[in-house]
Structure formats: C-alpha cells, structure tokens
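Review form for a predicted model. The reviewer records the input and the model, then writes brief findings.
Reviewer: anonymous (R2)
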Amino acid sequence: MKRLFLGFAVLAFFMACDEKPKNPVSEYGDIMIDSYKKGQKAGETANLDAVKKAVQAYHALNDKYPQSLDDVKELIGAEMDMSKYSYDPQTGAASLKK
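Model under review:
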C-alpha cells in the first residue's frame, strides 16, 4: 500500500512539473536582444536632444523654424536617420515617432 501511495505521489509530482527546463543559451540571447533594444532607444533619445538643439539654433540664426529636419542636418554634425522623428515646422517641436 505504501508503494502504491508513493508511486502515485511521484506520478503526481512529475505531472505537476509541466514547466519546461530553462535553456541558458536562449535566456542569454533574450537578454542580449533586450539590451541591444534598450541601447538603441537610449541613442534615439540622445539624438532627439541634438535634433531639438539644432532646430533651436536654426531658429536663432534664421528667425524661423526649418521646413523639415533635413534643413538642420548640417547643424547636427553627424549622420542621423531623420525618419525616426516627427517634426512640426509651425512650432519647431520634434519628437520620437511611436
């Protein structure tokens, strides 16, 4: 009787352990991808600050806001993908696209 009870207990334990074993390589890959994405986001945020400052500098020099962000590329001094940013030429407001 004890063996039968012990057998059922062991069987119940293994059936309850439905969780898959963790794969360290997969977990490491997920961590690296997450870190890469966070780094990209931080870079885009830092570049947004540079874009905003360039728009303000353009406004100070020309007494008007640029018609597009392409007009301020030379003021930034680095190649940037301006398609990641939204821009309103009426207000000079720039932001990250969602």
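Findings: The mean pLDDT is 83.
Further findings: The two ends are 65 Å apart (CA to CA).
Recommendation: see findings above.
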